[in-house]
Write a structure and sequence with these properties.
The complex is a heterodimer of chains A (393) and B (256). Chain A is an all-alpha fold and 393 residues long. In chain A, 68% of the residues lie in helices and 2% in strands. Classes of the chains: A mainly alpha (393), B alpha/beta (256).
């Protein structure tokens, strides 16, 4: 008998088998199905110039916080305070912009309002993380406490300082401040310029009737041209850029760096990681600060885009963030997950959340029915993946 | 006799009112297997965790090559050449062989990036040296057998400069054939001659097969120690049972 070793029992796989076994594959298939279904059901409206912009707006919003939630979940912890953190950060920026810096330090510029708010939210993230790692309590309960604490603080601060739970009618800072513009303005104008340029080529030489019918309005909209044959949509919301940046950085860190290895190791088996010299506690605290950062970016984009804020902003967002992370293939138990999968998850959930605007005849509440269903399906799928990797344990 | 690489003098460790170790002495020589035996709760785990820098001793002193040392963290201990292979092996099942091999000690390029190809190669070569040819270091540890995992953990400890290799019950929870595989690995490491091995076990046969020197613990104290020539089989059995005479035990059992 020839010498047989344990290693021979593992079959060599083709690239196709490897592709099918990737953790993102489920999220990818669901995403493709949703894109196709939505394109058909909305008669293409969901992906015309304005439809795409609006869809990407909500995808980016969900995506930013889902990336934070996923990174933290990979390290084995939850953050239920994301939604309240969004409300808190929005309140903090809006109040500073309207009523000036604290302690009578004068007018707040958008940059100062953002930096001071970020300092506060990162500190809160640090406190949450420190409580979790020092006490050994479940992050579920600690962050649940901060969900109430921060939402309450937000509302109380609004009433004390502003006498009302909303701030509206702030000046449009995007006009003067480059800083407000990179958060709340538009980006990637070249994309729509190119679209418009192609659109112009397509309609050149076509004689349009005096009265445009519904059909050719649709056609023009798809070419990014309005009724007067001018450019209709000029760019994406800036949050799209932030979503891409955060996703790219998160992907790079998780898959290619030492810190990424530490994050996976921390979530998989904390004690094993610690025994090998991974600074488990610092990794976790850092990731709680990262979710706080993501929530702050979410809030900043919203405040500078709409020039408003109110005490209910970000409500329930923590649950959407966690749901998207799970739909994207992140394990509830930590140690496994993929940033690409989370991006697919955000696209899927964002599109379905927005679907009601493009298909008016459906009831918007179906969104939650759908989200619940794919969440449950994803949990089962993830569990199967985990079992396969760990050899069925 | 050569100088012991690691020497422990009158080590005690208390957790609140509980005395886990009540004054333990131990000497470990390079190129030797020092079998540490004792029943559950004898203090074996506390002793190795103290040597590994997880616990700080309440009193007593650890010497490495004659110099007194104190470890404030597992990193200190590992920097001093103490490599511990725990019972759970400190492996992450969902992560690849390479990522486990370099966990906490990754080879970094610019911006903290991982030098993955180099790491894959090293992981493969180091495991080959002590006996297994692992073709795909990118596969998850969860798919490996218990013996392979053991080898991975030992290869990792040696690669990162372990001069003292502490093996915490490496043969428990393994099948017969894999147990022998692990013993072979221990012998191969011993044959290098520069590494001292502390082999913790419940199993008298295994310790007999590879052990050069024995220390028996019971209730936090050393109840017997010596080289394999000094300790006979009966003596060994008596000490393994925590110092109780087998004869007494037989009588007790018969009386029930």
């Amino acid at each position: 008998m020839a010498e047989r070793s344990e290693a021979d029992r593992l079959k060599e796989e083709t690239w196709l088998q490897r592709l099918v076994r990737r953790p993102e594959i489920g999220a990818f298939i669901v995403m493709v199905v949703i894109i196709v279904a939505l394109a058909i059901a909305s008669d293409g409206k969901a992906f015309n110039a304005l439809g795409l912009k609006n869809n990407i707006k909500i995808i980016a919003q969900y995506g930013i916080i889902a990336l934070g939630a996923a990174a933290l979940m990979i390290a084995g912890e939850f953050d239920l305070s994301i939604g309240s953190m969004i409300g808190f950060a929005g309140m903090s920026m809006a109040l500073m912009l309207k009523w000036g810096l604290p302690f009578g330090l004068g007018e707040a510029t958008p940059f100062l309002a953002f930096i001071i708010t970020l300092a506060m939210t990162l500190t809160i993230g640090w406190i949450i993380g420190t409580i979790v790692v020092r006490s050994g309590l479940s992050s579920f309960i600690v962050t649940l406490a901060f969900l109430f604490f921060l939402r309450g603080t937000t509302e109380v601060s609004f009433r004390l300082i502003n006498q009302s739970t909303q701030v509206s009618g702030l000046p449009d800072y995007k006009e003067e401040s480059w800083f407000a513009n990179i958060l709340g303005g538009e980006v990637f104008g070249w994309f729509y310029d190119a679209w418009y340029w192609f659109g112009q080529k397509m309609v050149a030489g076509v004689e349009w009737p005096a009265r445009l019918t519904a059909d050719n309005i649709n056609y023009l909209a798809a070419l990014n041209i309005n009724r007067r044959l001018e450019q209709w949509v000029t760019g994406f919301d800036a949050r799209f850029m932030w979503f891409l940046i955060i996703a790219a950085v998160a992907y790079f860190v998780l898959s290619r760096t030492q810190l990424g290895n530490w994050i996976y190791a921390t979530g998989d088996n904390k004690e094993a990681a610690r025994a090998n010299g991974v600074p488990v506690n610092r990794v976790k605290v850092g990731l709680f600060m990262f979710t706080a950062f993501c929530a702050t970016m979410f809030a900043a984009c919203q405040v500078f885009d709409t020039n408003t804020s109110d005490a209910a902003k970000g409500n329930l967002m923590e649950l959407f963030a966690i749901a998207i992370a799970v739909v994207g293939g992140t394990l509830m138990t930590g140690g496994f997950g993929s940033i690409i999968g989370v991006v697919f998850g955000a696209i899927t959930v964002g599109l379905v959340a927005n679907a009601v605007f493009f298909i008016p005849e459906i009831d918007g509440a179906w969104f939650r029915v759908f989200l619940g269903s794919i969440l449950l399906a994803a949990v089962f799928a993830n569990e199967r993946i985990r079992k396969r990797i760990t050899g069925g344990i | 006799m050569a100088e012991p690489y690691l020497r422990v003098e009158n080590l005690t460790k208390q957790f609140g009112p509980f005395t886990a170790l009540g004054g333990v002495d131990l000497e470990v020589y390079p190129g030797e297997v020092h079998a540490l035996l004792g029943d559950n709760g004898a203090g074996k785990s506390t002793l190795i965790k103290t040597l590994a820098g997880v616990h700080q001793p309440t009193s007593g002193q650890i010497y490495i090559e004659g110099k007194p040392v104190s470890f404030r963290s597992p990193r200190d201990a590992s920097a001093a050449g103490i490599g511990t292979v725990y019972q759970d092996l400190a492996l992450n099942q969902l992560m690849s062989v390479t990522r486990n091999f370099f966990m906490g000690r990754e080879l970094k390029g610019p911006l903290g990036t991982l030098r993955m190809d180099e790491m894959n190669q090293i992981a493969h070569d180091e495991m080959l040296k002590i006996g297994i040819d692992f073709s795909d270091p990118t596969q998850a540890v969860g798919t490996m057998s218990g013996g392979q995992r053991q080898t991975l953990a030992i290869a990792r400890a040696i690669h990162f400069g372990a001069k003292v290799l502490i093996l915490d019950e490496p043969t428990s929870a393994l099948g017969q054939k894999q147990q022998m595989g692990v013993l072979k690995t221990i012998k191969r490491v011993r044959a290098r001659g520069d590494i001292a091995i502390i082999f913790i076990t419940h199993n008298e046969i295994h310790s007999r097969l590879v052990g050069d020197r024995f220390t028996f613990l019971a209730l936090g104290k050393v109840i017997g120690a010596g080289t394999s020539d000094q300790i006979g089989n009966d003596e060994m059995r008596r000490l393994m049972a925590g110092g109780a005479e087998m004869g007494d035990l037989e009588q007790e059992l018969a009386g029930i």
